[in-house]
Design a protein that fits this description.
The complex is a heterodimer.
Chain A: H1 3-14, E1 27-32, H2 36-47, E2 54-59, H3 81-84, H4 89-94, E3 97-100, E4 105-109, E5 114-117, E6 122-124, E7 127-130, E8 134-136, E9 149-151, H5 155-168, E10 172-176, H6 180-191, E11 195-199, H7 212-225, E12 228-230, E13 235-240, E14 246-250, E15 256-258, E16 260-263, E17 267-269, H8 272-276, E18 287-289, E19 300-302, E20 307-309, H9 317-331, E21 345-349, E22 352-358, E23 367-374, E24 377-384, E25 387-394, H10 400-409, H11 415-424, E26 444-446, E27 451-452, H12 453-461, H13 467-474, H14 484-490, H15 503-522, H16 537-544, H17 546-571, H18 580-602, H19 610-635, H20 640-661, H21 664-678
Parallel strand pairs in A: 1-2, 1-7, 2-3, 7-19, 9-16, 10-11, 10-16, 11-12, 18-20
Antiparallel strand pairs in A: 4-5, 5-6, 8-17, 13-14, 14-15, 21-22, 22-25, 23-24, 24-25, 26-27
Helix pairs in contact in A: 2-9, 15-18, 15-19, 16-17, 17-18, 18-19, 19-20, 19-21
Chain B: H1 3-25, H2 52-55, H3 67-83, H4 96-99, H5 135-138, H6 141-144, H7 172-177, H8 194-200, H9 223-230, H10 233-236, H11 241-245, H12 258-264, H13 266-272, H14 279-282, H15 308-311, H16 319-323, H17 325-328, H18 334-338, H19 343-352, H20 364-368, E1 371-374, E2 377-380, H21 392-397, H22 405-413, H23 415-419, H24 432-456
Chain lengths: 680, 457
């Protein structure tokens, strides 16, 4: 759908004038709620300069401007409330966003296009955005209103918890809920120095994200930190004790005594405003929006955790920000739509990395999962039709950025990558990240001399930090020079990129060579003349006459030997005439020429027995050479992960090229010897 | 490369070198296959693993370039060429008037036309140059033979007219002499073998008073064997058990080597090892087996061995069995399979039934192991290939015992008749006989004209 059509579509659906939203200068945009989604929308509108089209007002219920709720648990580990603030009041003022905090909205008057706050003040709007977020879900257990029972949502909640701990001298705390929020809350208790327990109803921690094995490992690791984890616990009642403590009774276990209890058993969308004014609300809660984030009232939009999109309530910050992105774009007149968002999560829970990316098992039928466990680390890949569609890990996974990219691209996983994953826990051999500083130590920087990044790191640590010194000490970039820029980058110097000599001719020679290899297989043997009167008799003498065969054969051998001078240049110390790259391109050109000579010598006959072995080996060497040549000529041209891939493969290809060459001198010797031995 | 790689490199190369070096110096065996540069011709493939058969200098080689291989050819084929009265012998080009032609085609060197291991270039008779090679020297043939005007040079050898080497059955005078013969001759009979004749005679030339007494060790004596032996020429000629099984007072041997047979049957043995059946024995290799054959063979015969005993089994040496059934044990090509339904076979059946005189029937052996006259003697040539190089030779040696030459040449030139074992009539008639006749008449005419001219002058 084109942008124009979308705009038209939007205008007709929303019932606004045909000019669309972009033209609504000076419209009053009212945002109810000042959480992360609300702030995200403000920020994007301001940045897109669409803010000037609207007069923006934000009405927040909490006393402070929007703060980073995700990192709330850091409040007791050095961060202040101000640090967590996403932007201070000056920012709102500077960007002409009218912000009112501590302002609770109780009603939306859709007729009058006004909202009413708890003080009875009416706030008019042209466009209304509901971003009221969610509130903790408190399960229907008797005693949840007892003293010492808290929820975990706001800065105020955290302050209350801290005050209670200090006031009562609490020594033990418990959390009901072993999901993301519950574990965050457990961290808070741990940071406050409490003896902490986590109570989860499901058979494992983070049941919405982790499979049984992952949950098991997470439990083990969290228990190592000192948190007591009680799984499969159905809470019966919460009973305040005389000593000020709390007793938690279970249906299926002995009671647990604690001083303080946090309930973190999920959230409920704050959809009451919408429900009360007649907007469509989903059965399981949440204001229903379409893919334009519009509610059933065309002038009212909703984003964030209060929203139900396709019967789904998003509880993570990334999808909420995505909604803010889409809405900001739409308000700016763009045609973007919200198609749902990735609920991938990468978290550090109690110091343990937990990542859940892309699809889980249940989302599509026919997925295959692969898991790898190495000590405390658990890794899982979810494959659908051979492509990576999801991943999860508990514990460290240094390739996580690549995995994320692979899940995003739905990259195919080849059988050998599967094998490697089972063996090593990563589908790729070391390497793949973009900047060289982030390359793993084992990855190759200089493919000519096979110098690894680790070697260079060591040299830099020893003080050889100048690119030239580094090159001299390690040999890196002294051969073909295509990794010069990488060496400079690693040494922290300016990229000093010089075009590699002969790279273009090498590329052309390699491509021609590959073509010749294909032709050697595709072209049938050249036929002999079928009449002594035919002029072709003068040509086919090339393959009939012993003399001609010797001439073409030894010419071929000569070309081969000259081509080998390159190997001499590479492998011996005493021959240094001409640059390495120059010799390499000559090697490539001669390699291609050798294939032509081979065709002339054989007339496209691959021969039988010894001759067949020789010609096939010959062609295989050439084929590998053309690929290695192509890679080497591209090495200085490409950047990023391709550069890494090429550097990773070029030495391998070169090595196979060399290995295949091993028997050739001997085979040629036997070939020539047999000619003279069996000839007169 | 580090030391490990070098070590691996060395080991790998030693392995390769060892394999090929062994292939060079190994005795004839499958190892030699590694060195075969291309499929060997049908004439030589049986001995292809014995590289030295051709690729080794003989003691009498003169050492000139190209001479080793030439020697090798001559070792087996020189006598044959001489025997067939080679039309283009090397010595023909020693004549200064012909020597110039050698610049076009080195006709003194077998390899000019017969290379080995070049299957792509090889045609019938192991020829490895295009089949119109006659053109090189005979471009102007129509000047002297106007009847040849417009004939393709690739047809010289395919219509039963000319061969490069063996023209015994198709040289002009012979063709003319045999002009006008009917398809079926009046007298149709193969010559009788000298041995048969001798056996059937009760003449004084036979050794007398030979006591037909088997002299084998008692434990080896078997009534059936003795009975068989008594019915043979061996018994009649005084060749007792020990004659073959314990010659020269060495220990008794159950299996009799070819060398023993050769003592009496030298011509048969000698010719046998010149043909396809015995050529491996000639090189000291194991006997030929049907499994090694390129022609279709019966599967159950795959591992039979081609020695004298293959056809002349046990102690009866039944030549009737050897003439047909022995061949049919192995051969399963269409020509062989068609034999039983052929007119030739029914003649043989009638001869066996006594309805026709001896020599009236035509067996496999009649054509392929022909009875040759040598003076008074009629012997059997055991080189089954001797009259197939090319098959016109057979016309003179065999077919003409019953058929006219023109019919014979026509039949032999028709590939379909080969398939049906000569059941039917040739589709086209070879014109060479009548052309030769016309030519001679013309010459005769001219001669008479000249005589008349001289007289009138």
């Amino acid at each position: 759908m084109s942008i124009a059509e979308t705009a038209h579509d939007l205008a007709s659906q929303s019932g606004v004038d045909e000019r669309g939203l972009r033209q609504c200068d000076g419209l009053r945009l009212l945002i109810v709620g000042n959480g992360m989604a609300s702030f995200g929308l403000c920020k994007r509108l301001v940045e897109s300069e669409a803010g000037s089209d609207f007069s923006i007002s934000v009405l927040g219920q909490e006393p402070t401007p929007a703060y980073d709720r995700v990192n709330l648990s850091k409040l007791f580990t050095g961060k202040s409330a101000d640090d967590l603030q996403l932007a201070n009041r000056d920012w709102y003022a500077k960007n002409q966003v009218h912000l009112e905090t501590g302002c609770q909205i109780t009603e939306i008057d859709r007729e009058a296009k006004e909202v009413v706050d708890a003080n009875g003040r009416r706030h008019p709007y042209n466009r209304l955005v509901i971003a009221t977020g969610s509130r903790p879900r408190v399960p229907p257990i008797p005693g949840t209103d007892s003293p010492g029972v808290f929820v975990y949502r706001t800065l105020a909640d955290l302050e209350n918890i801290r005050d209670y701990v200090l006031q009562k001298g609490a020594r033990a705390g418990a959390v009901i809920g072993g999901g993301l929020l519950g574990l965050e809350a457990a961290k808070v208790l741990l940071d406050l120095g409490l003896h902490t327990s986590v109570i989860e109803m499901a058979p494992g921690l983070m049941p919405r994200q982790l499979d049984a094995k992952g949950a098991e490992i997470l439990k083990e690791r969290i228990e190592q930190i000192g948190v007591h984890v009680h799984i499969v616990r159905r809470t019966k009642a919460i009973k305040p004790q005389d000593d000020g403590g709390i007793e938690i009774d279970f249906f299926n276990a002995d009671p647990l005594n604690t001083d303080l209890l946090i309930i973190a058993a999920g959230v409920i969308p704050n959809d009451d405003l919408g429900r009360d004014c007649g907007l469509e609300v989903a059965d399981r809660g949440g204001i229903v929006v379409n893919d334009q984030l519009q509610t059933s009232d065309p002038n009212i939009f909703a984003i964030g955790e209060c929203v139900s999109f396709r019967d789904h309530v998003y509880g993570l910050v990334a999808p909420c920000y995505r909604m803010a992105d889409v809405l900001a774009a739409r308000l700016s007149g763009e045609s973007e739509v919200f198609r749902g968002a990735d609920e991938s999560a990468e978290l550090k829970l109690l110091g343990v990395n937990v990542a859940v990316l892309g699809m889980g098992i249940g989302e599509v039928s026919g997925v295959v999962t692969m898991t790898h466990r190495n000590g405390d680390n658990y890794r899982k890949l979810v494959l659908y039709r051979g492509e990576i569609v999801g991943a999860a890990c508990v514990g460290d996974w240094e390739e996580l950025p690549q995995i994320r990219q692979a899940v995003y691209d739905q990259r195919r996983l080849w059988p050998w990558q599967r094998t490697r994953f089972y063996r090593s826990g990563s589908p790729w051999s070391p390497g793949g990240a973009i900047p060289i500083a982030d390359w793993p130590a084992r990855s190759v920087v200089c493919s000519c001399h096979e110098v690894s990044k680790g070697t260079l790191d060591e040299l830099i640590a020893e003080g050889f930090s100048q690119p030239d010194l580094l090159a001299e000490k390690s040999g890196a970039s002294t051969a073909c020079g295509s990794c010069r820029s990488l060496v400079c980058e690693l040494a922290g110097a300016e990229r000093d990129v010089q075009p590699v000599q002969g790279a273009t001719s090498m590329l052309v020679a390699s491509i021609c060579g590959a073509l010749f290899v294909a032709l050697l297989f595709l072209i049938p043997p050249i036929r002999f003349a079928d009449s002594v009167q035919s002029g072709w008799r003068q040509v086919d003498i090339l393959w009939r006459s012993d003399l001609a065969r010797q001439v073409t054969g030894f010419s071929l051998l000569g070309l081969l030997l000259i081509g080998l001078v390159f190997s001499l240049r590479k492998r011996t110390g005493w021959f240094h005439w001409g640059s390495y790259a120059l010799w390499r391109s000559i090697h490539g050109i001669l390699g291609a020429a050798v294939l032509v000579a081979l065709a002339v010598h054989t007339g496209f006959r691959l021969g039988e027995n010894l001759n067949l072995v020789l010609s096939l080996t010959f062609i295989a060497v050439a084929a590998l050479g053309t690929i290695a040549g192509t890679f080497s000529s591209l090495e200085s041209r490409v950047t990023g992960s391709w550069a890494m891939l090429i550097r990773q493969w070029r030495p391998r290809l070169t090595r196979i090229h060399l290995w295949l060459f091993w028997p050739i001198p001997l085979l040629i010797a036997f070939h020539i010897f047999s000619f003279y031995w069996f000839n007169d | 490369m580090n030391y490990n790689s070098w070590g691996l490199w060395l080991a790998f190369n030693l392995l390769v070198a060892g394999y090929y070096a062994y292939a060079f110096f190994a005795p004839a065996s499958q190892f030699k296959t590694a060195l075969l540069p291309g499929t060997t011709t049908h004439g030589h493939y049986q001995i292809e693993m014995d590289c030295d058969a051709c690729h080794s200098p003989s003691s009498d080689g003169n050492g000139a370039v190209g001479a080793f291989m030439q020697d090798a050819c001559n070792r087996c084929h020189a006598d044959q060429l001489q025997h067939v009265k080679d039309t283009h012998p090397a010595k023909k080009f020693n004549d200064p008037s012909n020597a110039e032609l050698l610049q076009t085609l080195d006709a003194q060197n077998c390899l000019s036309c017969h290379q080995e291991h070049v299957p792509e270039q090889t045609s019938a008779m192991g020829l490895t140059i295009p089949t119109d090679y006659c053109w090189h020297c005979h471009q102007d043939v129509a000047d002297s033979r106007p009847s040849h005007d417009g004939m393709g040079f690739d047809s010289c050898a395919t219509a039963g007219c000319h061969n490069y080497h063996d023209n015994r059955a198709i040289y002009e005078k012979f063709l003319n002499d045999n002009f006008g013969q009917p398809d079926l001759l009046e007298k149709r009979q193969l010559p009788s073998r000298s041995l048969t004749t001798w056996l059937n005679e009760d003449s004084a030339s036979q050794p007398k008073a030979i006591e037909l007494k088997p002299d084998a060790p008692t434990k080896k004596l078997d009534a059936a064997i003795v009975a068989d032996w008594k019915s043979t020429a061996h018994a009649k000629a005084g060749v007792s058990c020990n004659g073959c099984h314990q010659e020269a007072q060495v220990a008794w041997q159950d299996a009799v080597p070819m060398a023993t047979c050769e003592k009496c049957h030298d011509r048969q043995t000698e010719s046998f090892i010149q043909g396809r059946h015995g050529m491996r024995l000639a090189r000291g290799l194991s006997p030929m087996k049907p499994t090694d054959a390129r022609l279709p063979m019966h599967v159950d015969a795959a591992h039979l061995e081609l020695t004298c005993n293959a056809c002349h089994s046990d102690h009866r040496f039944d030549t009737q069995w050897a003439a047909v059934e022995a061949c049919q044990q192995c051969h399963a090509d269409s020509h062989s399979l068609a034999y039983n339904d052929s007119a030739h076979a029914s003649l043989w059946q009638q001869e066996l039934a006594g309805e026709l005189p001896s020599g009236s029937g035509v067996t496999c052996a009649s054509c392929h192991l022909p009875r040759l006259k040598d003076g008074d003697e009629v012997w059997v040539n055991h080189d089954q290939n001797a009259n197939l190089r090319p098959n016109e030779t057979m016309a003179r040696e065999v077919c003409q015992s019953c058929h006219g030459l023109e019919f014979s040449l026509s039949a032999l030139a028709d590939p379909d008749l080969t398939e049906t074992c000569f059941e039917g009539q040739p589709k086209t008639r070879t014109e060479s006989v009548s052309m030769a006749h016309d030519w001679f008449q013309l010459q005769d005419e001219k001669r008479k004209q000249r005589q008349r001219n001289r007289k009138s002058n």
